């Protein structure tokens, strides 16, 4: 890495995190948190110890997706992350706020500082793969987060419409600024599969994912359908129970191979 070491925050002494994967998107609402949760759950299912650092401070949705609502506690070494039913460790601002419906109206530097504290002041313990649900966009806050955490690679989540835009280029450029490899490109809501005839309907038109991945030298891609079961599972806190093998297997296998622990 050629990232300026001075910006990197030091991990808590009680943390032994082997790989850190950032999950980014161009804007909110494209399914970044959903993909983060599914990737962590898939790795946990493979037998790894997974964790999620919820850096999406103004829109924290990870705890809800895993059905975790208790408040985290600390000891003399720092905060103890929450643990979902499947064993995935989670830290989110929602687990600290007295009332999780309170809006977080903090400014950029405070947000970036909080994310940094989730790295320096949380006792993560032994973690094989930590997924960071990044603040949406490619602005100042995600860039600062990038520079302060030792991110090994990123996964870019987009919607079909964004694929034709410049969002992927921007995310790739941001990753390039910190010399972070782009591991995968996920197209969320790529199609809808009819439950009766199993035909795949491309609601937003043909996909451009393969040409974009080729253009940027991104080796792994994944497509997720619009699926009511995904929405229901995330609303009901059961995201870890969704079987994602058909959609995410090649991406998780690539992460495993490229960043073995
Ligand atoms: P982001 O983190 O990008 O803001 P989320 O992951 O929170 O977006 O997703 C926004 C909402 O859309 C959530 O309620 C989620 O359950 C729903 N959603 C996302 N992707 C899908 C999908 N492929 N099928 C059905 N619902 C989805």
Automatic annotation (TrEMBL):
Binds and transfers iron-sulfur (Fe-S) clusters to target apoproteins. Can hydrolyze ATP. The keyword Iron applies. Keywords: ATP-binding, Hydrolase, Iron, Iron-sulfur, Metal-binding, Nucleotide-binding. It comes from Anaerovibrio slackiae. It comes from the Bacteria. One of its GO terms (biological process) is iron-sulfur cluster assembly. GO terms for molecular function: 4 iron, 4 sulfur cluster binding; ATP binding; ATP hydrolysis activity; ATP-dependent FeS chaperone activity; metal ion binding. ATP binds at residues 26-33. InterPro entries: Mrp/NBP35_ATP-bd, NUBPL-like, P-loop_NTPase, YlxH/NBP35. Belongs to the Mrp/NBP35 ATP-binding proteins family. Gene3D superfamilies: P-loop containing nucleotide triphosphate hydrolases. The keyword Glycosyltransferase does not apply. Homodimer. This is Iron-sulfur cluster carrier protein.
